[in-house]
Specification:
Low-confidence stretches: 80-89
Strand content: 15-25%
Structural class: alpha/beta
Distance between the termini: 35 Å
Largest sheet: 7 strands, parallel
CATH class: Alpha Beta
Shape: globular
Number of domains: 1
Length: about 270
């Protein structure tokens, strides 16, 4: 039985872990506290509690990686809002944390790795984006994710596949509430690039099934209405106050194409009516 370690059993990682247990994989999952130990173990997931650091590595990580052939890194960089000063090489740098972890991955039984990244690495442009597009991140989150992508892809000891998700929606992430009631919202004509949790899990399952290693994929549903159209409709559907938009400035926004995973992995999106 193939064993997989999932670093970060949160909004994405926990339901992913449960799905992979049903697929017949043996799963180890991490959280940053012991609060979810019972929840994970009741789902057949071996639980480990630790947090990544920039200068030390918990001994627990050695046990977390031991015996696993595949590692899935599914932790958000947490570089928004009050954490925006994480850009410095300080204790909260996501890049430093992965750099610090990497030697332990190399010494472990892990041979393959899936890193959950974001389409934020492409920045904001008026263009159709494919995997051949040149990244140009403008946010600190996007910049650090791109650094980590390069760090992992340049490592010859591990076969890494990068998965760049669009905006995540699903349980506890209701798109109707993202902009409801807000005023003067920018970029009304920009396309939306969203993906449902079910498809996030399905794509990872397909990567494992197809053994699609040493590659990178964009992942956003092939449905790109304008921000104004989409968020107005979602607000009205749930009887919320629709946002108002600023039409005085030109809209800027990219369209994320996922044709590579559709054609190469033969993946069919299950959630199109986002």
């Amino acid at each position: 039985m193939t064993q997989i370690s999932i670093l970060g059993c949160g909004w994405l990682g926990f339901p992913l872990a449960k799905a992979l247990v049903k697929d017949g994989f043996q799963i180890k999952g991490s959280t940053t506290s012991t609060d979810k130990k019972e929840l994970l173990e009741n789902a057949g997931i071996t639980h480990f509690s630790f947090a990544l650091e920039t200068d030390t590595v918990s001994d627990i990580i050695l046990d977390f990686l031991a015996g696993s052939e595949i590692l899935i890194i599914a932790i958000p960089p947490k570089l928004r809002g009050k954490n925006k000063d994480y850009s410095d090489a300080n204790k909260n740098s996501f890049v430093k944390k992965i750099e610090n972890l990497l030697p332990y991955i190399e010494k472990s039984t892990v041979e393959k790795l899936i890193f959950i990244s974001s389409t934020a690495i492409y920045g904001e442009v008026n263009a159709t984006i494919t995997e051949d597009s040149i990244p140009n991140p403008v946010t600190e989150s996007g910049k650090q994710l791109l650094q980590i992508e390069n760090l992992l892809m340049d490592n010859n000891q591990i076969k890494t596949t990068i998965l760049r998700f669009g905006g995540l929606i699903g349980p506890d992430r209701n798109p109707a509430r993202f902009l409801a009631g807000k005023e003067n919202v920018a970029n009304p004509d920009a396309p939306v690039n969203l993906i449902h949790l079910d498809d996030c899990i399905g794509i990872i399952q397909k990567i494992l099934d197809k053994k699609a290693w040493n590659d990178h994929f964009n992942a956003a549903a092939p449905h790109h209405p304008s921000r104004k159209e989409y968020y107005t409709q979602k607000a009205l559907e749930q009887e919320l106050v629709p946002p108002t938009f600023n039409k005085t400035a030109p809209s800027i926004g990219k369209t994320i194409e996922s044709e590579k995973l559709i054609n190469q992995l033969k993946y069919t999106f299950t959630q199109l009516d986002l």
